[in-house]
Amino acid sequence: MKSRFAPSPTGYLHIGGARTALFVWLWAKKQQGQFILRIEDTDRERSTQASVDAILDGMQWLGLTYDEGPYYQTDRFDRYKAIIQQLIDEDKAYYCECSPERLQTLRDELMAKGEKAKYDGHCQHKNLISGVVRFRNPAEGNVVFSDLVKGEINVHNKELDDLIIARSDGTPTYNLTVVVDDHDMEIDYVIRGDDHINNTPRQINLYTSLGWDLPTFAHLPMILGSDGARLSKRHGAVSVMAYRDAGFLPEALLNYLVRLGWSHGDQEVFSVDEMIKLFELKNVNKAPGSFNQEKLLWLNQEYIKTADIQHLVDQLDWHLNEQSVDVSQGPDIVKVINALRERSKTLVEMTQGVKMFYQDFDRFDEKSASKQFKPATQPIIEALIAKYTELEDWSSEEIHTIVKQVCEEQGVGFGKAGQPFRLALSGTGNAGSIDVVAELVGKKRTLARLNMALNYITQIDD
Ligand code: GLU
Quick one: which of 44, 94, 214, 256 has the fewest CB in 10 Å? Predict the structure, then answer.
């Protein structure tokens, strides 16, 4: 069994494309079949190498590995030409020289009459030898097929006009190339977005006239933004790699994507293995799915909390490089990640949190400092410095005991020492459990930061 993902490289891999790729991939995996990647780059004006790279990067980051490909349609022009010639020779296709102006006038007239804009067959019997090539669509009968998602589709041939299969420069169009490729590549399942559903009856007529077997079709519902409009750039990041950049884990995005238009009871969290086991095309919704950024963020947080630690280390690495955070000197990154994972919604947030363990800072967040570093805090900070200087067993337990002792000795609640200490350690006040953080930051750096806080307070005294 073979299925394929066939993106056009005219932009990055977007959320909708990635969802299609995932469903096609899951279907192949589920049946232990082959997943094929085909780059549909025949539109030379709109296709770019940068976009091919973006698609390949996106697939790789998501782990959607392919068994065959990537194939490029631009490598197959000879084959398309031969098929187009064959159709002309068998009188199943003909040249058309209607000018764009004539076609426009025709369209306007039909629309004014409230009819469907459609080619009138003007060049059908002219035996021309140049121009665009049109497929002779059957005039009678219906095209009927059973879509695995949408159910039975029945279209009268009167609805379909004579499709252009080659442009006047001889280059083939999408509907021709897709049929030739799906046939030649022995594709059993054509799974794609439902924006192509109107093309399918035309493609079926092409298959039939070439005497080829039909694949099974499944058209996936589109994805809407939270406002009900089709998901687009307006809704924020739609490129898959922008989600990597924003600190999402690939498995969180996959989990989110699988739920966009598919469900299994009310289960929300699926490992990739579970997705493969449970996925069924017949359970794909007919109605569009809505993109919900909050839910994706929630899933990401769940995955950050529970992911295998080495996987987190690997995924975080890209972000650390991006932010120039060098973790080769200092505490074990595994311990730092474990201290941060409960409170990080994204890897970008985690990277911010990582900084205080490896980098010194030269000033405190001003708003927090003016609130936390008051003259009354001075004796507390001084006492912490004195006791920590003496402390030999630099462990979170001992560090914690000292904060408690200082609070008792000075008759204040834990927060009165804890909050300024947290700010002193982090510079921002954003940190988890202070004793764990201080242990990892280390004695020398902790003392230096407490002294910096003391300096701040003595300066406001002046
Ligand atoms: N290249 C087409 C697109 O990106 C998809 C074609 C197909 O799956 O049949 O929309």
Answer: 44
